[in-house]
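Final report, section 2: Outcomes. Of the targets proposed, Solute:sodium symporter (SSS) family transporter is the one most frequently requested by collaborating groups, and we therefore present its record in full.
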Amino acid sequence: MMILVTIICYFAALLLIARITGHKGGSNAAFFKGENKSLWYVVSFGMIGASISGVTFVSVPGMIRGMDMTYMQTVFGFFFGYMVVAHVLLPLYYRLNLTSIYGYLGTRIGTHAYRTGSFFFLLSRMLGTAAKLYLVCLILHTYVFQEMHIPFWLIAVGSVALVWIYTHKSGIKTIVWTDTLQTFCLIAALIFIIYFTVQKLGLDFSGIIRTIQGSEHSRIFVFDDWISRQNFFKQFFSGIFIVIVMTGLDQDMMQKNLSCRNLREAKKNMYCYGFSFIPLNLLFLCLGILLIALAGQMQLELPAMNDDILPMFAAQGYLGKPVLILFTIGIIAAAFSNSDSALTAMTTSVCVDLLNTGKDSEEVACRKRKKVHFSLSVLLALFICLVEMLNNKSVIDAIYIIASYTYGPLLGMFAFGLFTRRQTNDRRVPLTAVASPLLCYVLDWWIFKETGYKFGYELLMLNGTLTFAGLMLMSKKEKTPKAP
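The predicted structure is given below as tokens.
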């Protein structure tokens, strides 16, 4: 009952914020770009929660058992990826005054490239958001609502409905502030869970350091094994490109940046936000080591799935009742700060990129936006149920693999536009964008069969390279006007 009361109070706070931020009306300008009045430090803090997600909250501590602390190699790459976004992509988006970032592809390559970019974003974001919300719905179903005999599908529908309720009016204007609350809850939950774990272990600060350093899972860097998916160079450069595509080429993440008052403030947001990822992910990984140490001390058998390690400690009372409440708040805050902005970004992309609502009157455009927002909410709930039927692996790993296939064409198209001055066959861009991930899949299967080598996150770079190569093959030099 206490968990249920906590959830109700939490969503009541979100609805109150939505009411305050949306009381002056729900125009498209407010929904899409927050009327360009967002404070950069508020956006930066809120984006931490939107990027972390419920998947990170659960999966990263569990990663320790399978890959030690080598995930930090990817996190270090993230930081340099954020610098690329700040100095290459953000200036471009602000210079063109874009609402949807895929408008750049229309300006640079053509209409077919524009629509293809938007389609791949919608596909990737729908699948990724469904996978992230699925994990949270599953945990709530297993550890909170199962005893009440509430079915999984109803939890999924209810979760999406709550997101729709507090975002349908003012979109990004509301999300900037709800994400701030949710990020605060996420970080507070993480710190207090670590505190209760340390208390259970009976460690002081020096004891914490010794436990982490002495763990067999404390390895961070892998330089000596080129075949391993944990090799430093694979992880580091994959981290750079993951950020470039999953932040810089993602309407969801860029929409918040574009709501800042100017480019200078948007860059500040990116610096602060990018750096904060390093200590935060380090804390998640340290928590994983401490939980494994506690399991050894208490002689507990850890679950088969890595994603179940933290939920097991929280739900079965090994860390006390407060941790179950903190864990519930943490995963809900993380999941909803990610899904609310994703739903808003998908609505923006459909309205601006596919329906071209900019040509409509404000009244007609708002009416279309509301219909799209509701329809995407229904579709998201259906996809969560679909993921529930298909899931068979670590969710965070699945999300990065999905991104490798769906964001690769975006990477190739943007790279072609930014780093060449050639013109390509716009009508054939959709074919190239679809063929590249299919070819990647075949290559991954064939190389694994012949050599035993399995592609990891570097699949994203291969996919982008194939798309870039395809566009180059169809290209010709840009015509320059003759001098008079």
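Residues 218 and 454 are 24 Å apart (CA to CA).
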